[in-house]
Design brief:
By secondary structure, this protein is mainly β. It contains 4 helices and 13 strands. β11 (about 175-185) and β12 (about 190-195) form a beta hairpin. The longest helix has 13 residues, at about 95-105. The chain is elongated. This is 2381_t:CDS:1.
Length: about 210
């Protein structure tokens, strides 16, 4: 088994937070979960435009995160470039790095993208990803349901149960993200959108949360 010298990844660009991605229906695809030394899960954003470089086999490999991949325009896309060549826009860092490395060196070697690019547990790069974060979404469990809250606003309107314009949350069955329900309160309506496999299937509107 070939061994490689561990080379620390270098951060080129921190990228940016995009509210329509990091705090909307597919938000959970735009955050990393990392376990700290106290065995507590922490959340880190996958920032659009994030760029990292690492050296493998004397060649520098550049990773860039963009909006959209070959299967869905709303999910993260991972692009790896090295030696004048480029990977396809992949769904994971591992696929982007592995495919390009195999293309350059004509080998079957595979890599863990998150580990190589410093996006794994206890990485210094992860701390930079928190810059400018004003709100961390959180989740609670109720019976078999998992409820994510990714924006909080309050009001005293009747029937709103304390929630206000701008409140956003989603609900799914634990362990099953293929079908989920997003709730959003706007100035005019309370909206519930039903998604299946990242595609919107139905939309319900009402004057109050109970109406929908």
């Amino acid at each position: 088994m070939t061994k490689y010298k561990r080379v620390s990844p270098k951060l080129i660009s921190i990228g940016s937070i995009v509210s329509q991605l990091h705090y909307d229906a597919f938000f959970y695809e735009w955050w990393l979960i990392s376990t700290n030394t106290n065995n507590i899960n922490e959340l880190y954003p996958i920032r659009v435009g994030l760029s990292i470089v690492i050296e493998l086999n004397n060649i520098q490999f550049y990773l860039k995160i963009i909006e959209g991949n070959k299967n869905n325009t709303c999910l993260p896309g991972y692009l790896c470039q090295a030696n004048g060549k480029s990977s396809d826009i992949e769904e994971t860092t591992s696929a982007a790095l592995t495919n390009l490395y195999q293309q350059i060196f004509s080998t079957k070697t595979k890599f863990s993208g998150p580990r190589k690019f410093g996006l794994d547990n206890q990485s210094i790069i992860l701390e930079y990803l928190l810059e400018g974060i004003n709100f961390w979404f959180f989740f609670v469990y109720f019976d078999k349901f998992q409820i994510f809250v990714y924006n909080i606003e309050s009001s005293s309107q009747n029937g709103y149960e304390g929630a206000g314009c701008g409140f956003m949350s989603s609900l799914s069955i634990k362990g099953k993200r293929k079908i989920f329900y997003e709730q959003k309160i706007t100035e005019s309506f309370c909206i519930v959108r039903v998604f299946e496999k990242f595609y919107e299937k139905e939309v319900f509107k009402g004057k109050t949360p109970n109406d929908v």
